[in-house]
Amino acid sequence: MAYFDFTSFEVSFQQYVKYVLGKPLDEATKKDQLNAVCYAVGKYLMDIHFDTRKRYEKNKAKQVYYLSMEFLIGRLLSNNLLNLGIFDPCARFLKKQGIDLETLVEEEQDPALGNGGLGRLAACFLDSLASLDMPGYGYGINYDYGLFRQTIVNGYQQERPDYWPNRSSPWLIRRSEEKYVLPIYGKIEERQDKNGHYKPMWTRKKLFIGRPHDIMIAGHRGRTVNRLRLFSAAASKDFDIDIFNDGDYIKAVKRKIQSESVTKILYPSDSKETGKELRFIQEYFLVACAIRDIIRKFEKQHSDFETFHDHVAIQLNDTHPALAVAELMRILVDEKKLVWETAWDVTVKTLAFTNHTLLPEALETWSVYILNKVVPRHLQIIFEINQRFIARVKERFGPDNHEMIAKMSIIQEGDEQKVRMANLAIIGSHSVNGVAKIHSDLVKKQLVPEFYSMWPEKFNNKTNGVTPRRWIVACNPELAKLITDAIGRRWIADLDLIWELEAFQNDPGFLERYGAVKQANKQALADYIRDTVSETVDPLSIFDIQAKRIHEYKRQLLNLLHIMHLYLTVKEDKKDIGPPRTFIFSGKAAPGYHTAKLIIKLIHNVAHAVNTDPAVNRQLKVIFLPDYRVSLAERLIPAADVSEQISTAGMEASGTGNMKFAMNGALTIGTLDGANIEILEQVGKENMYIFGLDVDEVAALRPNYQPKEYIEKDDRLKRVIYALRSDRFSPSEPGIFRSLYNSLMSPGDSYLNFADFIPYVAAHQAIANDYQQPEKWSTRALMNTARTGFFSSDRTIKAYADEIWGIRAQIREKDLW
User: Fold this and answer.
1) Is 402 part of the annotated catalytic residue set?
2) Of 393, 276, 294, whose CA–CA distance to 346 is shortest?
3) Cα–Cα distance between 168 and 173 in angstroms, integer?
4) Which Gene3D superfamilies does this UniProt record tie to the protein (predicted)?
């Protein structure tokens, strides 16, 4: 725990306002006060970081570097204060100054460094590495703009720039003295050295610069502070010199803007060739900057690159950083002069790859044309890697097994040659892991079975986890206090201990307090809904929440079909549907994903029909909260009674939202998909609502799926789908949802919505029945909290550290407590 010194904190706070902002204290705005507090906290972080670094260097500790295009770290002030152990003393100090800490926390803006689960997972991993006192660093891109900020206009998603004021962020430390000059474009000239060895020359290349910025990552108890290093692109003078010499100043400025645009926005649109090129350059930029920085750190203490893997582990978070295979080989062979075989052995032993998808279309491919244009030397290396690998494939499976060779080759043949980044990552890594048991099994059996048959020892599972520090302690402080009062504080560092709460499952007083925490969170969310979207909801109703990316496989449509059924039951049948229910949606649709955007429109149209009808809206409400992000998730998750995790079985790799909801006492309604299966194993089937087809049943049904058969079997489904077709929910825009209707009615509906509709309705009826028994419901909610210790990201990181990275905690005995 960091020692909180009121005097030094006050001096830092006042100095920032007076001498950095140039204002008297009484003129400081809320934003000024926030920045001043962050500045004062940052001094604590930096002191601990210096001590952490010395500890790693003294012990010559092997270090892991986590490469990811996304890090959704969320607001940092409250998280840092809690992890440092100074939240309460800081709040008391600010109160004496007439400042409310909670108000300041709300002033902070989410860093625009990611989009979804990939980035939230990466953030949890950094928290766990620091909390476990392990030497682990993140590498990412310092985006000026996130994917987009979502607003809703007449029910339609509108995208607006998601600007994060990173240039003025008090958390972002600019390393102005450091930079990496990166080659790009040009061509390769075939040459030989004086000994006759092949020595390619990358000529006529352009250059641009990567400048590092650091965010300090505090571990729980304040013993270790690691670092997330983010790179911004800048133009090199060398990049523009020829143009300047030609006197074309405007063209030179345009080139400068183009080079700096590399880190302007997360995932630029790849619908046009220029967008594809920019998106690929982003991935190259991340990899090239990160590898150079890692090598710079390595060379501070070591010189023998044949032992590089003994000191360095690099984890590739999905396929975006897969070019690290070629970049590390290029540096080892071209710059460090290792022979190919040695360099390849070092590369494979250094790199490890995490797969995050079961959708073949989601596996990245890049055209050979783009690679040859942007990074010609890397393309050369990839072709050489592939040639040597295919020779091994032929030895293993036979020279005439053309089907196997075609599937395993890094180069995908066709009208246009493409580089398969997943194949490159698998071939160039010593470990390939999935992120849930079922996902890892399906990776081996369905996604890349050919690679598994060749290297079964490479493949393993690392079920995802989330940090309890942010996802209970920070976002649900009253629940955290209740748990701590019952079983002590040790659970925050060791979530396995939370099982001790099971002892209170028959304690009426504890269950009443547990329920009161949930009710207070629901009231807070109801207030937020009123203030945000001007809708009044009943905090005593069932809060049923589906908060995640809008996508057909996540089946927000199935949720809507059920809501339409409830609406029609009340409206037309005049029947009571049990306890009042509030269905809450939140999530973004990719800008070019028309169907997903149409689903958002349907949510709003159904919400309008429900919420404006006095015959219905006392029993049913539908809410869409725009611009889903970490800080919004921190409001939604503690308030949920029911967590919707209803993806078609076999399509969700893992999920982490399901874990966060369960930790905070929401009961899951879900399919046997992703980590739902492991949540079921931990919390028990009596504390969840599992429905629908499993993976094998989905695979068996798809070839013979006939949606009309399900309509004929069930009048409820027939009424719902006909209401959709008849424009009941789109009277002013007839035909707008016809494509959704056609998709649902098609035998080619991969998501099998109708097949799971009847069991889904039955599961919701069971929820309605059970919710009317408050003590029973609270007991089951408590069991979810008590039995989710397995889903701490600390457990996940320990498994990575022991089984993939070969790193260990670096802590002094006197710091253990």
Assistant:
1) no
2) 294
3) 10
4) Glycogen Phosphorylase B (3.40.50.2000)
Torsion, CA 767, CA 745, CA 546, CA 690, rounded to 10: 40
What pLDDT is stored for residue 255 in this prediction? 58
Record: fold of 60-75+110-464+801-810: Rossmann fold (3.40.50)
Mean pLDDT estimate for the chain: 93
pLDDT, tens digit, 9 for 90 and up, residues 122-165:
999 999 999 999 999 999 999 998 878 999 999 999 999 888 88
Question: CB-based burial of residue 200 (10 Å sphere; 0-12 exposed, 13-18 middle, 19+ buried)?
Answer: middle
Phi-psi category of residue 370: left, alpha or beta, with phi > 0 → left and psi -120 to 50 → alpha: alpha
Interval 174-202: pLDDT, tens = 998 899 999 999 999 988 777 777 778 89
- Give the active site residue among 347, 354, 463, 656: 656
Question: Of the listed 309, 320, 356, 555, which one is catalytic?
Answer: 356
Q: Which of 292, 418, 548, 551 is catalytic?
A: 548
Q: Specify burial of residue 60 (Cβ count, 10 A radius: 0-12, 13-18, 19+).
A: exposed
660 is catalytic: yes
How is domain 538-785 classified at the CATH fold level?
Rossmann fold (3.40.50)
CB 48 within 8 A of CB 222: yes
Mean pLDDT of 711-734: 95
Distance of CA 274 to the CA centre of its chain: 26
Distances (CA, A) of 58 to 53, 54, 364: 9, 6, 40
Task: Report strand pairing: 312-317 vs 351-354.
Answer: parallel
* Known catalytic residue at 656: yes
Tell me, yes or no, if 718 is annotated catalytic.
no
Asked if 60-75+110-464+801-810 and 538-785 have one fold, the answer is yes
Closest-CA residue to 490 (of 220, 146, 106): 220
CA dihedral 110, 115, 116, 121 (to 10 degrees): -70
Which residue out of 309, 377, 420, 549 is catalytically annotated? 549
Q: Which residue of the set 205, 418, 439, 660 is catalytic?
A: 660
Residue 223 corresponds to which tokens in the numbers above?
């013993």
From its phi and psi, is residue 226 left (phi > 0), alpha (psi between -120 and 50) or beta?
beta
pLDDT digits (tens, 9 = 90+) for 264-285: 888 766 556 768 899 999 999 9
H or E element at residue 264: none
Beta strand residue intervals within 408-563, DSSP E: 411-412, 418-420, 432-434, 459-461, 542-547
Say whether 356 is catalytic.
yes
CA–CA dist 115, 100 (Å, integer): 30
Annotated active-site residue 554? The verdict is: yes
Sign of CA dihedral 135, 141, 145, 148: negative
Domain map (residue ranges) of the chain:
60-75+110-464+801-810, 538-785
- Burial code of 588-607, b = ≥16 C-beta within 10 A, e = fewer? bbbbebeebbbbbbbbbbbb
Catalytic, out of 55, 256, 554, 764: 554
Residue keyed to tokens 């046997």: 672
